[in-house]
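TODO from last week: model Alpha-D-phosphohexomutase alpha/beta/alpha domain-containing protein.
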Amino acid sequence: MLSFAVRHIGANAGIVITASHNPPEYNGYKAYWNDGGQLVPEIAHRVIDKVNDIKEFSSIKTMDENEALEKGLLNIIGKEIDDIYIEKVKSLSIRDDIDKDIKIVYTPLHGTG
């Protein structure tokens, strides 16, 4: 979903907090670039270099969540993006009748789904 959202809203990047296929206590984050793909090694190394340049956490510029939202620097995606994504997927269907009477069971398996 984040890959779609990054491209749809024209974000410079996106971050998802996830434990991937592991239990939640192993949460970390995955970073996506403006093309919707996970960071490629060249860009990831530049990000890691910037993080490694930080000598003290107090030197990191911070901003209140509400201020970041007001300035358009933070966008927490929700149901509206889900709905747009679902409509986009439906528009790609080659047969309108293909989803009739279909039953699906789904589990994200700690984020891998």
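Done. The mean pLDDT is 88.
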